[in-house]
Structure formats: structure tokens, C-alpha cells
């Protein structure tokens, strides 16, 4: 039997950083994000034996484990398989359409996809189907626990919940450690207009999110960036209001203001290259934009006034990239309403 799953990646618009402990447990945090049609995939080719094969070319992982229950956890995939007590073997194939370190929540989406395929393949989906909000919460919480608590990978809550739920979401991170997801009703006209006006581009340079998140956490513990995160949270509320009014220009302006604050959160968020990219974008039609995710590299996106401006903007950004010995490529944006999803495939 072959079972497959996919989980979408996300674009973070506002509130990033306020979903990280200890900020969210002390002050409460919020994020506004949307899933996009770029996916992490997991396949489980089930076999009735105790041998587990793992094939994850994105992270150069290919191995065979004779008995998973006796194996020491060393990475995200193996830890997830062991945590969910996979009862029989087979081959697990995992890949993502965006590279690690891209800032689109790749590692969390990979884990959500893997949990989803195990959830379905072990029969949990019968009692708790994946289209239930309660199941989406369970999968996101489990992914968070594995990444942040068991493996100690620094970061926030946003990515797991954005990937599990799909769509546009306003997510609240409460002081008691609970998370509440409010799916936002966004008209098709607004989504189409926003898709038309967003330029999402890969800077050609990846970054190690965990190091940035570790610096963010240390700064939080020293109270060095609290005021910046307060402003980021305030702007997230403003973005939500603009989205509800379907005012994309205002939405983009608050993304711009949020990015100016995010740059102050830690030293690794931006650099000379990213600043040059952003300044060039603002001079060539961008109302606002930001580095996606923790910062330091990966994808950046910009919202322009008119869709046709994206053509000139991309050319100007590519000129900047040449000076920094890299290339910039665009990725078309389509918003994805569905979160974690599984299906059967023929042998």
C-alpha cells in the first residue's frame, strides 16, 4: 500500500517573532499568515516487516533502520517515526518544493506532512479525520513538540499551525501556552489581487533559522528586543484590519513598517545584501515587503501597486544580485486553502 500526503508552506505577513517563547508566554503573541501552493510531500510505502527505509534527498538522508524502536533519535524524520510508534516498516520518502532555510516554514511543513501520512497509514484518520479542526490542532501541536521540545530546534509555533490548517489564518499564542487558530474569510477577488501584486523571489542565499531563533530567544531573555516585538504585534493587528477591509495598499504599508522593526530584533535578520534588495524594491514600485521567516536570507516578497511593475522590479533585483555573486529567481504565488491532505496511490 502506498500512502502520500502533502502539507503547504506559508507566507508570514505579520507578527513573526511574537510566537516564540518566552515572548508569547509572557505577553501573548499573534501572527497573520497564508498557506501557498508550494508543498512538502511524504510517502509511506508500507511493508509487513520491521525494516524502515528513509529517503529524504533534500537533507541528504538515506538509510535503513533494522528496528526503529531501538534506534537513537538523531534527526527530525527519525524522531517523528519513533514518537508516533510506527508499528510496521516500509519506505518513507520525503521531499519539499522549496529548499531548507528558505524562510517558508519548510522543516515544519515536512514534519506535518510526515505526521499526516503516518496518521492516515496507522488508521488514526478513521476516528479523527484530517479535515477536522481538532485533528489539525493535534498534528500541529505534535509537530511543535517534536521540533521544539524533543529536538530542541529553536523557533516559534506559527509554521506548524499554518501548514496543518492551510488558508489565511489569524493565530493567537496565549500566555498559558495554548494556541488558537482563527481562519479568515478572504474573498476570491482579494486573493487574486494580492496574488497578482506579490513578487516572491528566492535570494539564492539560505540561512540557518535555528541560529537566528536562538539569538532572538537570548535577546528576549535579556529584554533587549521586547519593544520591537510589541510594535510588530501592533502592526499585525493593523494588517488584519486592512485585510478585512480588503485594502492591499494599507496592508502592504504595515508589512513595510513591520519589517523595519523586525530588522532591529537581532543582528542576523538582515545584512548588506538584503538591505540593498529591499531599498531597490522600494525604489521600483514596492509598497512594502519583507524577508520571509526568521530572516538572514531565503525568500523575500514585495507587494507592488500594479502587477506589471513586477517585471521591472525583478530585473532590477537581478542586477543587484550579480554584484553579490548570486542570482534571484521568482516563484509564482497561489494561495492554498487546504492544509494537510492525504491520499492513496497505486502500487
Features:
2 domains; 347 residues; 41% helix; Alpha-Beta Plaits; 24% strand; 4-stranded antiparallel beta sheet; alpha+beta; 12 strands; Ribosomal Protein S5, domain 2
Short description:
With 347 residues, the chain is α+β, with helices and mostly antiparallel strands. Helix content is 41%, strand content 24%.
Question: Can you describe what's shown?
Answer:
The longest helix is centred in the last third of the chain and has 20 residues, at 226-245. Strands 1, 2, 3, 4, 5, 6, 7 and 12 form an eight-stranded mixed β-sheet that branches. A four-stranded antiparallel β-sheet has the order 9-10-8-11. The chain has two domains: 2-187, Ribosomal Protein S5, domain 2; 188-330, Alpha-Beta Plaits, CATH 3.30.70.890. Helix 3 crosses helix 5 (133-150), helix 5 runs antiparallel to helix 6 and helix 9 runs antiparallel to helix 10 (248-262). It is α+β, with helices and mostly antiparallel strands and 347 residues long. The radius of gyration is 20 Å and the shape is globular. A hairpin with a 7-residue loop joins strand 9 and strand 10. Helix content is 41%, strand content 24%. It has twelve helices and twelve strands.
Amino acid at each position: 500500500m502506498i500512502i502520500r500526503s502533502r502539507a503547504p508552506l506559508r507566507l508570514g505577513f505579520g507578527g513573526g517573532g511574537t510566537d516564540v517563547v518566552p515572548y508569547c508566554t509572557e505577553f501573548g503573541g499573534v501572527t497573520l499568515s497564508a498557506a501557498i501552493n508550494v508543498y512538502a510531500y511524504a510517502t509511506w510505502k508500507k511493508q509487513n516487516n520491521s525494516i524502515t527505509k528513509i529517503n529524504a534527498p533534500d537533507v541528504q538522508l538515506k538509510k535503513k533502520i533494522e528496528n526503529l524502536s531501538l534506534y537513537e533519535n538523531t534527526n527530525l524524520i527519525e524522531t517523528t517515526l519513533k514518537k508516533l510508534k510506527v508499528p510496521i516498516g516500509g519506505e518513507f520518502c520525503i521531499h519539499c518544493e522549496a529548499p531548507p532555510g528558505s524562510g517558508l516554514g519548510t522543516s515544519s511543513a515536512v514534519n506535518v506532512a510526515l505526521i499526516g501520512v503516518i496518521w492516515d497509514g496507522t488508521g488514526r484518520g478513521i476516528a479523527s479525520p484530517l479535515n477536522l479542526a481538532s485533528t489539525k490542532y493535534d498534528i500541529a501541536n505534535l509537530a511543535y513538540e517534536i521540533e521544539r521540545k524533543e529536538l530542541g530546534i529553536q523557533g516559534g509555533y506559527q509554521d506548524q499551525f499554518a501548514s496543518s490548517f492551510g488558508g489565511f489564518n489569524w493565530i493567537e499564542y496565549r500566555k498559558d501556552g495554548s494556541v488558537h487558530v482563527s481562519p479568515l474569510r478572504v474573498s476570491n477577488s482579494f486573493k487574486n489581487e494580492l496574488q497578482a501584486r506579490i513578487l516572491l523571489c528566492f535570494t539564492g542565499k539560505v540561512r540557518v533559522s535555528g541560529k537566528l531563533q536562538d539569538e532572538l530567544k537570548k535577546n528576549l531573555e535579556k529584554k533587549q528586543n521586547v519593544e520591537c516585538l510589541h510594535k510588530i504585534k501592533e502592526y499585525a493587528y493593523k494588517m488584519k484590519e486592512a485585510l478585512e477591509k480588503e485594502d492591499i495598499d494599507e496592508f502592504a504599508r504595515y508589512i513595510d513598517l513591520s519589517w523595519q522593526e523586525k530588522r532591529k530584533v537581532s543582528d542576523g535578520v538582515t545584512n548588506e545584501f538584503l538591505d540593498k534588495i529591499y531599498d531597490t524594491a522600494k525604489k521600483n514600485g514596492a509598497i512594502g515587503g519583507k524577508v520571509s521567516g526568521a530572516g538572514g536570507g531565503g525568500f523575500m516578497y514585495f507587494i507592488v501597486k500594479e502587477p506589471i511593475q513586477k517585471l521591472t522590479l525583478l530585473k532590477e533585483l537581478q542586477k543587484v544580485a550579480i554584484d553579490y555573486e548570486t542570482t534571484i529567481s521568482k516563484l509564482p504565488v497561489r494561495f492554498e486553502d487546504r492544509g494537510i491532505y492525504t491520499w492513496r496511490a497505486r502500487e
